[in-house]
Specification:
There is one protein chain. The chain is mainly α. The chain has one domain (39-51, 63-380). It is built from 19 helices and two strands. It has helices at residues 8-26, 33-53, 68-71, 77-82, 85-105, 110-141, 146-157, 159-171, 173-176, 182-197, 208-225, 232-252, 275-290, 292-298, 302-313, 315-333, 349-378, 389-392, 396-403, and strands at 55-59, 62-66. It has a two-stranded antiparallel ribbon with strand order 1-2. Helix 5 (85-105) crosses helix 19 (396-403). The chain is globular and about 60 Å long. The N and C termini lie far apart (54 Å).
Length: 404
């Protein structure tokens, strides 16, 4: 007797499971899946964090940026969970230093390695710049207020600062490979003493920390590659020392409790990075290193691993377009009125609850942008008779190239 045909949802679930098992089977046993999991969690943390604390308030005929952290400062712990950039720089430094060593072993020159690595980072930027250049001109021609266009462009292009810093540190990897993280940490300390302690120095001095601050987790990643952070003791030292230092800076030295920028405040921990942001990043890096074992076990599940793989293959696309997804959802719903959690002031718990209900729509909009623009990051489609990139990406050679 013939087996009854599966329903459409069951067929779809069966297909997904089959694909997940193929990806899992194609992954070499030697691959450190925890590294990929940390990178995926770092990117998704930033995305969710921005969606939770970035509000576009409809006011005076335009859209203005606001944040629930302005009105509900006790929500600052949200930023402790979702401001995960230090983890991304930790993984980036680890992967870059390991990849550079692998490239040299394979006879590749530094320019060849750098060109391959930066092209993956910067290719998706072109599409973002073109789309928003067209959008900005169209909005201005249709009479949109200049302040609204400025707000939208600032949010849409804000991820680019991260890419510029990350690209610069990547280019400097040969120099940073053996740099002790205490050196850039000392630079951040001295800059903050001059800025906040002695109230000396030019106004631009704080921007020195834009490089030095993110250099700390990046060089920690290089130390990880050298085997200096393999022990749990090292991870616990980073976690406890970073937590204690951050608490002291917030409670005793007047640093903001929020680890992201809050509109209207005099000092931002993130723009540029302060000593508190850097010590907080040390604590995050310590926690990330402690979680490696659990993440390694979790990623043995094919479905979990396939999601992490897909996120890593599209990490820059997700990061670059997530703010645009938020803004498109907000603008599309504007004709329906000032909707709670989307266009209203983020000054109550009702707004927070409403914002949570909008997250699935933000995610859906991001999926649409991902579908449209992921090929800029992943490269052109290959003929069907050739192995897919998802599978090829786990061959021994592709593995080395991926980590490069």
């Amino acid at each position: 007797m013939a087996e009854p045909s599966l329903s459409a949802p069951r067929r779809a679930l069966h297909t997904i499971r089959q694909g997940a098992h193929r990806v899992d089977a194609a992954t070499p046993a030697s691959r450190d899946r925890a590294v990929d999991a940390l990178r995926a969690l770092a990117i998704l943390g930033v995305v969710l964090g921005h969606w939770l604390v970035t509000a576009l308030v409809a006011q005076d005929g335009g859209l203005h940026t606001a944040s629930p952290l302005q009105h509900l400062p006790w929500l600052a712990p949200i930023s402790w969970v979702f401001q995960t950039l230090a983890v991304f720089f930790l993984v980036g430094g680890h992967v870059a230093t390991r990849g550079l060593a692998s490239a040299r072993d394979r006879g590749l020159s530094y320019p060849q390695w750098l060109r391959t690595r930066l092209s993956r980072l910067l290719r998706p930027v072109v599409a973002l710049l073109i789309l928003w250049a067209v959008a900005a001109v169209s909005l201005l021609l249709t009479g949109a207020p200049l302040a609204t266009v400025h707000t939208l462009l600032k949010l849409a292009l804000s991820p680019l600062w991260f890419l510029l810093v990350f690209a610069a540190l990547t280019a400097a990897t040969p120099v940073l490979t053996r740099l002790n993280p205490l050196w850039p940490l000392a630079v951040v300390l001295h800059v903050d003493v001059l800025r906040f302690g002695l109230h000396m120095g030019p106004s631009w001095l704080g921007w020195v920390n834009l490089a030095a601050g993110w250099m700390v987790p990046y060089t920690l990643g290089a130390a990880w590659t050298r085997g200096e952070l393999e022990s749990r003791r090292a991870a616990w030292v980073l976690l406890t020392a970073g937590t204690a230092a951050t608490a002291a800076l917030v409670l005793c030295a007047g640093y903001p409790a929020s680890m992201v920028g809050v509109p209207g405040t005099a000092v931002s921990n993130l723009n540029p990075p302060t000593l508190a942001a850097v010590t907080f990043g040390l604590a995050q890096c310590g926690l990330a290193l402690l979680l490696r074992g659990r993440l390694q076990r979790a990623t043995t599940r094919p479905l979990v691993w396939s999601v992490i793989t897909l996120t890593n293959l599209s990490a820059m696309t997700i990061f670059l377009w997530h703010q645009t997804a938020l803004m498109v959802t907000t603008a599309t719903a504007l004709p329906a009125g000032h909707l709670p959690g989307l266009h209203t002031r983020p000054d109550s718990l009702d707004w927070v609850a409403a914002r949570l209900s909008w997250l699935p729509l933000f995610a859906l909009a991001l999926v649409l942008f991902w579908t449209a623009f992921r090929h800029h990051e992943q490269g052109p489609r290959r003929p069907r008779n050739r192995p897919s990139r998802l599978v090829r990406g786990h061959s021994p050679r592709a593995k080395a190239e991926h980590h490069a």
